[in-house]
Amino acid sequence: VVGAVDAKDVFTAALHDLGYKPARGEVARMGRFYVQQYEATKVQACSQATTQANALARNHPISVLLSPKTVYEMRVRCAVRTIASANEWVAKKRFRKIVNVIRMQNRAAKMAGLTSREGRGDAGRGDAAAATTIAREDSARRDYINSPSPNVATTVRGGDCDQSATTTKTTKTPTAAPPEDSPKPNFKALMAAAAFRNKSRSALLLRELSASLKIAGDESAENLEETSSSSPKALPSSERSVSLWYRRQLPNHRPGIDSPRAGAAIAKLRRKKILTQVLHHIERAMVLDVRNTLMRSGVVFLFAATSAVLGLIFQRPTNAAVPALFLMAHLSWSLLTTIFVIFTFGAEKAQVNREVRQGVSIIAYWLGRNVLIMFDDLLYALVASSILAAICRLDISYSKLLGSTYSLLYFASGFGQLFSAMFGSTESAVVVSCVLVLIVGGVLSGANPPLAELQATVPYLFNKNYGLPMLSFARWSVELASVCEWFARPNQSPDELETYMQFYSYDVSMLYVAYLWLWGVGTFLRGCALIKMRITAFA
Known about the structure:
Number of domains: 2
Shape: elongated
Distance between the termini: 51 Å
Low-confidence stretches: 1-5, 53-58, 60-66, 115-131, 144-180, 212-253, 255-261
Structural class: mainly alpha
Main location: membrane
Number of strands: 0
GO cellular component, one term: membrane
Number of helices: 25
Region (Disordered): 139-186
Oligomer: single chain
Organism: Pycnococcus provasolii
Transmembrane segments: 294-313, 325-347, 378-396, 408-424, 430-447, 508-525
Helix content: over 70%
């Protein structure tokens, strides 16, 4: 006989048996809804079902013999497998299904007369009359249910009925039994209960149970650990798409297709044209950007603060200090842009991968997000170039300064997209990208004259026309801004300008080369990121 069992204790025991360590507060959150729905009748239902199970085994189908505690433990194990292989929000939906199954078992027990026998006995009916009435009702109910268990007897024995009625009348306060006497989860009974509740879905459910998990019948709960290592890909194609309700319980099930409403929305979206999908992704990205207004405001503040600090340090730069000013500014701006883009794409990576696996175009997402990224780059370029030009009193045309800054940020955002796609962890992508930006943009640039003096010692590596500086984005952006600033200053001596121009490979008439390099390589990096994103989504 099993007494009152606390919901939290049952859930914790199931977690312990499966070797899963719950997060802080997870047990309380998962059990709260169950306690609210079931605490009032739990003690009475457990005592009645467990004390009468043995006496009624020969007269009732197996679907009626389930105690609420057994059903709860059984459904908790299904939920724990979902917790271990999916996210917490999937487990919350699974617990709503647990409560529904418990309610279904209560209705089945009530229809079989389990909850009303004690009242009938207290009303003064004799043992024989009560047993005859119960047996007649149970026989009719069994014929209606068409029990799936072949071991259920179809005859009523008077001695068993007398024993059942006597047990019902004499047992008023059941005593608690040791944990080892508690009923084990019976998955065959679960299948029968599902068929009793919804016959239209029972055939699919039984076929999936027998074809995938192989845990029906007499198999023990130890098979759950072996089953958890299997993959849903082993199912036949006909079984893989029949029941969303059961697919959510499969081990290693990928989250994201759990919600039928979300799945219907994605199915509707993937039938649209590419342009419609692009507009959808732009709209969704705009909503997400509005929600992240605080973070975006912080990025704008960092751009403004960096430009202001560099302006206060360099004041009105001399001709020799102009490359150093732009080198420091461009390295700082490219670092900020790269980190911001990595966090932006990293936050959406999981959702995008789920949608792509369900048929949504990755190109549509890539185009939609890049449209908004380009607007972000324009905003940052306006803020950074305006503050730097105002504090340093630069003579360069504002359009050329804005164009060079915007080209640099376009390249940096493509750099960030590539590293966000290459690394699964956002933190790893940030660390590696920052190191490469400092090396490629600073050490290899050759844009600052002290660095470019390495041409004299290592000409093949630091040659301005074919060496390593050709691979550095700062070699193009810094030279572009520096040359424009030098030629914009009034009263410049040609000999003085020639001293600085000897480190650079083009003059004012060849500035388009720098623009082509920054925009071309930035687009190439975006294309590589797109290919990597598609490969990762189907990995």
